[in-house]
Amino acid sequence: MKDVFFIERDPYAPIRHCYAVSKVLYESKSQYQEILVLESPEFGKLLVLDGVVQLDEKYEFMYHEFLAHVPMHAHPEPKDVLIIGGGDGGTLREVLKHESVRRAVLVDIDKEVIEVSKKFFPTLSCSFDDPRAIVVNEDGYKYVQDYEGEFDVIIVDSTDPVGFAHVLTTEEFFKFVFRALKDDGIFCAQTESIHYHLDMVVKIQNNLRRVFPLVDLYTSVVPIYAGYWWTYSIASKKHPVREPSREVKVKTKIYSEDMHRHAFLPKSFYERIMNRSFSF
Ligand code: AG3
Hints:
Blueprint: E1 4-7, E2 18-21, E3 23-29, E4 34-40, E5 44-49, E6 52-56, H1 60-74, E7 80-85, H2 90-95, E8 103-107, H3 111-120, E9 133-136, H4 140-143, E10 151-157, H5 171-180, E11 181-193, H6 198-209, E12 214-221, E13 229-236, H7 257-263, H8 267-274
The structure holds 1-{4-[(3-aminopropyl)amino]butyl}guanidine.
């Protein structure tokens, strides 16, 4: 195959990304979604769910390191961590780099994504065998409702908030998350592109503000997602989040103490986004 491009079906962005690909390695329809694994000369393998590129082998660290290490370092000693979604294992891999972690529960509704990742993405799925990892194939929205004061950090690594992932952005869900966290717990979720999905970002932030005393927004560049400039919403019961609470000892490619600080938008700009005096 030469000059063959895969066109992404982003449900929201008014733009279509095309990725140069050389091979279709896997194609199936699970109980929940279409799963596609593509080979690309530039990006390595790509994981595509319901037509949307979730990750590539080349740049995935630019997403997973920010999603995991900002909340994990804002917390002084995360021991019990819950990841909702993230069946590819990338977020789990980053979370388990923290020596303080004694248990990381990954709840992904779709078992097939985990199996596909184990087969095609060994650099992401490398931590599923860690004795501290517990994998549960359930609906994260329901799972979290069974816990009270259980987790130090909860991370949502979901697909776009359309279809079954939409409930993970609602005020009701955030109330369950708040209850499932310990008294000084921290929550973080990937929340789409700052420009193409700004309305959604503000809505999610407002839902979080109705539940948590401290809510903030940070960003990183993710070269394979439409819009590139990706947001993460973080909410904390007690600990400040703009600074790492301790020295960064984990081995990372891009995340560092400085990158942690740098990821947060200046407060004045963040407030302009939230009070809608700024729009693109
Ligand atoms: N989950 C978030 C992917 C969002 C992509 N959306 C888009 N391009 N519109 C990634 C899962 C990786 N662990």
